[in-house]
Specification:
Number of strands of chain A: 11
Largest sheet of chain B: 7 strands, mixed
Helix content of chain A: under 10%
Distance between the termini of chain A: 41 Å
Largest interface: A-B, 28 and 29 residues
Strand content of chain A: over 45%
Strand content of chain B: over 45%
Shape of chain A: globular
Largest sheet of chain A: 6 strands, mixed
Structural class of chain A: mainly beta
Number of helices of chain A: 0
Helix content of chain B: under 10%
Oligomer: heterodimer
Shape of chain B: globular
Order of helices and strands of chain B: EEEEEEEEEEE
Structural class of chain B: mainly beta
Chain lengths: 112, 117
């Protein structure tokens, strides 16, 4: 059974810091790994999608990496801003399935 | 592209009542998903439709839950005889058919927050 774990559960940093969020998964038979952002009481916004054959994806100040063999992904946020404050969720798309399996998220607070 | 729309945004009901939620996916997205999210947790998969066909259901979807997608457009999720444990955010997502799962990106609605008293 696939399990997705995110560390840390919560993170508070001053504005301007670079930071790394971690995600690990137990079953490497995945199609892709996706990172989402969720603001309080809202739905999810897709940030980055890394296919199983890829090593990383970049979008603006965000960079996500994938090491499928070790079951790990990281989301790097450069020069953090207060507007980055949200919960960041990692999810894997399982091979031979129609579903994403999510971690519990990392709650990020960027202090001005 | 008006995004995925869910209605209502909030629903408060008494235990034992039936509730129904609606999801309107992005037009021409033929794949539609329902997820449930409780406080402090990530979303959990409930069910998946491709057009009007319900192709996968989670074991979380007990006999009290039923989902439909008539005509392959909007979808409804009904919970009968609600219990306090049903309190959660119910999220709908849609995606276009890409032919393979490797590039499948989901677009989520804002969810329906259910509170069962």
């Amino acid at each position: 059974k696939q399990e997705v774990t995110q560390i840390p559960a919560a993170l508070s940093v001053p504005e301007g810091e670079n930071l790394v969020l971690n995600c690990s998964f137990t079953d490497s038979a995945i199609y892709n790994l996706q990172w989402f952002r969720q603001d309080p009481g809202k739905g999810l916004t897709s940030l980055l999608l890394i296919q199983s054959s890829q090593r990383e994806q970049t979008s603006g100040r965000l960079n996500a990496s994938l090491d499928k063999s070790s079951g790990r992904s990281t989301l790097y946020i450069a020069a953090s801003q207060p507007g980055d404050s949200a919960t960041y969720l990692c999810a894997v798309w399982m091979d031979s399935s129609y579903k994403l399996i999510f971690g519990s998220g990392t709650r990020l607070l960027v202090r001005p | 592209d008006t995004g995925v729309s869910q209605d209502p945004r909030h629903k408060i009901t008494k235990r034992g009542q039936n509730v129904t939620f609606r999801c309107d996916p992005i037009s021409e997205h033929n794949r539609l998903y329902w997820y449930r999210q409780t406080l402090g947790q990530g979303p959990e998969f409930l069910t998946y439709f491709q057009n009007e066909a319900q192709l996968e259901k989670s074991r979380l979807l007990s006999d009290r839950f039923s989902a439909e997608r008539p005509k392959g457009s909007f979808s409804t999720l009904e919970i009968q005889r609600t219990e306090q444990g049903d309190s959660a955010m119910y999220l709908c997502a849609s995606s276009p058919r890409t032919g393979e799962g490797t590039n499948e990106k989901l677009f989520f609605g804002s969810g329906t927050q259910l509170s069962v008293l």
